[in-house]
Amino acid sequence: MPTYKQCILDTYSATVKFLDQSNGNYSYPFDFFRDLKKYGDFPTRDFAVVFGLAVFWTIARYLLTLFVYKLKTYDKDDKPIGLFFNLTPLNQKKFPESAWKWMFYMFTWSYSIYILFFTDRRFFQQPLLVWQDWVPSLVMPFDIYLMYMIQCSFYIHSIYATLFMDQWRKDSIVMMFHHFLTLSLIGFSYAVRYHKVGALVLFVHDVTDICLEFTKCNVYLKDRGGRFYAFHDILSTIGFIFFASTWFIFRLYWFPLKVLHSAGHGAMTYAPSLPVFWFFFNVMLWILQILNIYWFMFIVNFLYKIATGQMKEVDDIRENEVDEKCKRVQHKPMNGFAGGHVTNHVGENNHVMNNHKKVENNQHTNSNNIIKHRKSTKTMENHVHG
């Protein structure tokens, strides 16, 4: 596996080679569609499979949400998970989304492990092997074909789900762009038979989504029924540690050194027959890496909020209500220890002391009024007797 420096230098050399081959020819965008029509292979049958599966994922999620995850129920004997856990109204909406994604990514990542490590393929150990026998009309093995149909259909479903089913967050627009980008990568790599490197891309990305959704599920479960559950708080903390670790290892370390290096240097060196495909595929992969860095900044931002006392527990800072809660904490006075707690206690003590003084003053005033009333009564009695 190359170093970061070697990855950058090899990619730069491959880019220079691509520009030399273009020789100032700016018709490459048109050459791309021409070559894709000539060499690409995405049969109508496969389109039907993909869209049929996308509808299936949407219906499956709807039914799971209605009968398994959701809090509300129409039958007293029916006990969905949400009702059993007595989630808060806001978390009722967010828990089904995370539970659904966690189940799906567990399945897809497990399947990608089987493809890469439980067959005779060594793409992960030696990524340059993915170009060893590449031709545009390469026959795709059925297990990788099945993975492509499942993943492609899921991202079509995800576009619909982000718009109409998921909780809207600060990065939802970026997420929509990510879904379109991923769908384009999957569809293009399938059509031109870049499926071996595509299997690597899916493997290094799905594991982080498992950790993310597991963490979010436990965040939603730790406050329920008017009680705080430390067990789920611990699980959410462990999940976040795995999430941050796997994000760095899989997306910021293995993805550039195994996938970007192989797709850049390896494809130009061992499969240079269609350079326009090389350019399009690598541009999309590098955009995906920019998105990986963008989302990693949310992790860094979360760690900063923990370090500065703006947050005391694991939560999703992409959600608007969490961000507002952090801003309220940030604007509280910070005199004393524990993020302003001492100041708050002093204020509370002053408030109590002022209340005691008010009570004492009221009692003193009432006593004076009683004395005055008694003196007035005594004067009237003396006047009557006189």
List the helices and strands and how they pair.
Blueprint: H1 4-22, H2 28-39, H3 44-69, H4 81-85, H5 89-117, H6 142-164, H7 172-191, H8 195-221, E1 223-224, E2 227-228, H9 230-270, H10 275-307, H11 320-330, H12 341-385
Antiparallel strand pairs: 1-2
Helix pairs in contact: 1-9, 3-5, 3-6, 5-6, 5-8, 6-7, 7-10, 8-9, 9-10
Mean pLDDT: 80
Hey, roughly how much beta strand do the residues contain? under 5%
Biggest β-sheet strands, sense, barrel: 2 strands, antiparallel
Order of strands, main sheet, comes to 1-2
Polypeptide structure, described:
The protein is mainly alpha-helical. 75% of the residues lie in helices and 1% in strands. The chain has twelve helices and two strands; from the N terminus they run ααααααααββαααα. α6 (142-164) runs antiparallel to α7 (172-191) and α9 (230-270) runs antiparallel to α10 (275-307). The model is unreliable at 71-76, 333-360 and 370-386 (pLDDT under 50).
